[in-house]
Amino acid sequence: MKTASPVHIALFALTILFALSGCADSDPQDDFDDPDAGAADVPDATPEHDVDADISPDPEVPDIGSDVEDDIGDAEVESDVEPDVDEGPIIIDDETHPASAPTLIEPGSDGFLLRGTVLAPDEVLDPGEVLVDGELIVCVDVDCTAEAEAGDFAIVETEGVISPGLIDAHNHLPYNFLPPWFPNPETTFNNRYEWADEAAYREHIAPYGDNRNRGTHYCPAAKWGELRSLVHATTTIQGQSFQQRCVDWGVRNADHYHGLQHNHMRTTIASPRDITDDQADNYIESFEAENNPTTRLAVHMAEGHSGSGVEDEFDSFAGRDPRENRHAGVSLLEHGTALLIHAIPLTTPQLEEVYLTNSRIVWSPSSNFQLYGEGVTAPIEEMLEWNITTALGPDWTISGAFDMLQEMRVAKGYGLAEDIEALTPERIWRMATIDGAEAVGLEEFIGRIEPGYHADLAIFGRYGDDPYRAVLDSRSEDVELVLIDGDAYFGDQALDDAARNDYCDSFDACGKSKFLCAKEGPGADDRGDERVDDIRAQLIDILEGRDDAPPEEQYDRADDLLDLVICGL
């Protein structure tokens, strides 16, 4: 039993608000398989399929099924909606302030010339310019006008900070239209297998979870998850596990649809202790493939307290499991492909092995605190001392922050509370950009403002002595413009003409008028023809279906929920 932290209290207050308004609960879906893996009623799973693994408990740790993956083929499925939560109380050093509104100096058809404070990989250009020609960044300098003279570029005076788009390295995206789940503010769990088996949790996620393999639920939920990400400056996510064409759009999916190279990632939600000899051989064969090798294996690893059995998962994954048919002597770390999600109780020798094998870790502090207790999270200070590539990911709205910006603020607050000097705003920004790209295996294409990189950019309308702090302090209303491959998907209404997209919708970001683009274009059909209100209406139907209130009250509550998760409390 732990005392609630400030982040716990803020998130619990939001849950109470949801409860008082009568909003229906819902179920989380992972970027990998299903966070419920570990519950007693999951079917057998085989490699390359998006299904939960069977659980045959070990005396100490649930032995969760086999290699569960999110590659599910192309069956037609519908997507999800996500709720947004805003920060817990955070102590900050240098103040930041809202900037003046951005100005579209002149429209253009070839790309963008952006002026502002530029967060380049190794320096801050203040003032600086970024020239985007088509899909790519072609100039990053204090003055790019000479290069711009050769084309017809929209010139934008941002008055704010120009950053790479944020990279969410771990989320269960389709669950993110559901509110947080706090069965008891004083209750925490020993490991992920405990809460996944709670009846109250399963009831909470039922509106989505009972139908997550159906297109009618998956597609609106997943698409809403991407829209929520866009309005918080996130351009790439790991966690859109189902390979369904309805999400081959918008935010890059590190798992499947990213448009940058072959699908290089495999994912599993099952316990690492369940990987058999044959499955380990299958992984290694994919790591060593001559064509289109697997370069990342994302695995939930050691999520929970030391002493609850999860600490054995790392050694099992590393080939030191003495049980029969558990790939003893065959380490799945040796190829440098491992992306370890959570990794809470790792020891110093294990962290050294992570470093020496060039493995990576995704840190999810907000979800860790909520599920396992105040201060219970990965050993971030030691991870940074080892210089292990560390990315950030909120996990999902069921137990974590509602978006990457909030997760960055939680990380900053934890660093201040624990006096971790390395957790500066700049280091946290790197976790969400440069290091995030490395973690998901797309570092050659995104995560940097550098010539030749894809133009996945976010402009933040705040300023201050520390531009990295300005990013952390931002909310959806502060996000002036979001580009993916040089195309605008979200931004201030004043920049709508620069988006050159006739299929964007007006959007109220917490009282500030924005545009948000969901429809794919003039030739779009089926789900590509959906606009923001179409996706929202499907989610409201899903939420209403779990409520005994009269239809008018159901709609009001569901509608309020979708608004609230964008702006938070």
Describe, in plain words, how this protein is organized in 3D.
With 569 residues, the protein is of the alpha/beta class. The chain has a single domain (6-491, 509-536, 544-567), classed as TIM Barrel (Alpha-Beta Barrel). Helix content is 28%, strand content 19%. Strands 2, 3, 4, 5, 6, 15, 17, 18, 19 and 20 form a ten-stranded mixed sheet that branches. Mean pLDDT is 82; it is low at 1-93.
SSE topology:
Blueprint: H1 6-21, E1 96-98, E2 103-106, E3 111-119, E4 124-133, E5 136-141, H2 145-148, E6 153-164, E7 166-168, H3 192-196, H4 199-209, H5 215-230, E8 234-237, E9 252-253, E10 265-268, H6 277-287, E11 296-301, H7 312-317, E12 338-342, H8 348-356, E13 360-363, H9 365-372, H10 380-385, E14 390-392, H11 404-417, H12 425-431, H13 434-439, E15 457-460, E16 462-464, H14 467-473, E17 479-484, E18 487-492, H15 496-499, E19 504-509, E20 512-517, H16 532-544, H17 551-567
Parallel strand pairs: 3-6, 7-8, 8-9, 10-11, 11-12, 12-13, 13-14
Antiparallel strand pairs: 1-16, 2-6, 3-4, 4-5, 6-15, 15-17, 17-18, 18-20, 19-20
Helix pairs in contact: 5-16, 16-17
For this structure, the quaternary state is single chain
User: What is the annotated CATH architecture?
Assistant: Alpha-Beta Barrel
Q: Give the structural class.
A: alpha/beta
CATH fold assignment: TIM Barrel
* Total separate domains: 1
Q: Name the poorly predicted regions.
A: 1-93
Q: How would a crystallographer describe the biggest sheet?
A: 10 strands, mixed
Number of strands: 20
Distance between the termini: 26 Å
What is the percentage of strand-forming residues? 15-25%
Q: What proportion of the residues is helical, as a percent range?
A: 25-40%
* Global shape: globular
CATH class: Alpha Beta
Determine the number of helices (DSSP H or I, runs of at least 4 residues).
Answer: 17
